[in-house]
Design a protein that fits this description.
A: 113 residues, 0% helix, B: 117 residues, seven-stranded mixed beta sheet
Chain lengths: 113, 117
């Protein structure tokens, strides 16, 4: 089982649509969770951290379910500029206090007029 | 967040040669990392660049192949040694935001696109 799993997509949606991405992670000791956005041929950019209570930033809402080891990202009122790959990222904890970021393979979103 | 630059932005190299990639940050950071992103795949951590000591390598990556330097808190280099076409990839450095504390938010440089022929 992959440490961080995402539906690769692509999700093809019209402008104005609401779209949701899901992600599951395997390391139950994980402490921090993030969504990154990566445009074609560019570096990943931090979109938002995911807090236990869920958090919202404009049109973007992230939620975390620790019991199910599940993270989601909801995008409302999609814009053409939202077209990108969205990476689910988990800070995985290992024995000895060692931790590192584990990246999902990404979900591709294409917003069309 | 910190401003990160990488040099070169891209290169085409012959097999058997080596390439050194530089990563410069505009502020002092404790943690710097090197990642690889192969075509169509997500990011894989190569190593953590430790200031003043040897880098910490992830499983599958060794110092002889990917030597790393970290002479100070704003600069690091990654060398891809004895390259083969399988090393063709994007190499990215990242830094951890010290203000984030345990949240471990990382910010990435623009990447170096390497093609080995």
């Amino acid at each position: 089982r992959k440490e961080v799993e995402q539906d690769p997509g692509p999700f093809n949606v019209p402008e104005g649509a609401t779209v949701a991405f899901n992600c599951t992670y395997s390391n139950s000791a994980s402490q921090s969770f993030f969504w990154y956005r990566q445009d074609c041929r560019k570096e990943p950019k931090l979109l938002m951290s995911v807090y236990s209570s869920g958090n919202e930033d404009g049109r973007f809402t992230a939620q975390l379910n620790r019991a199910s080891q599940y993270i989601s990202l909801l995008i409302r009122d999609s814009k053409l500029s939202d077209s990108a790959t969205y990476l689910c990222v988990v800070n995985a904890m290992f024995s000895g206090g060692y931790n590192k970021l584990i990246f999902g393979a990404g979900t591709r979103l294409a917003v069309h007029p | 967040s910190a401003v990160i630059s990488q040099k070169p932005s891209r290169d085409i190299c012959q097999r058997g040669t080596s390439l050194t990639i530089q990563c410069q940050v505009d502020s002092q950071v404790t943690m710097m990392f090197w990642y690889r992103q192969q075509p169509g795949q997500s990011l894989t951590l190569i190593a953590t660049a430790n200031q003043g000591s040897e880098a910490t390598y992830e499983s599958g990556f060794v110092i002889d192949k990917f030597p790393i330097s970290r002479p100070n808190l704003t600069f690091s280099t990654l060398t891809v040694s004895n390259m083969s076409p399988e090393d063709s990839s994007i190499y990215l450095c990242s830094v951890e935001d010290g203000l984030a504390g345990v949240r471990s938010e990382q910010y990435f440089g623009p990447g170096t696109r390497l093609t080995v022929t």
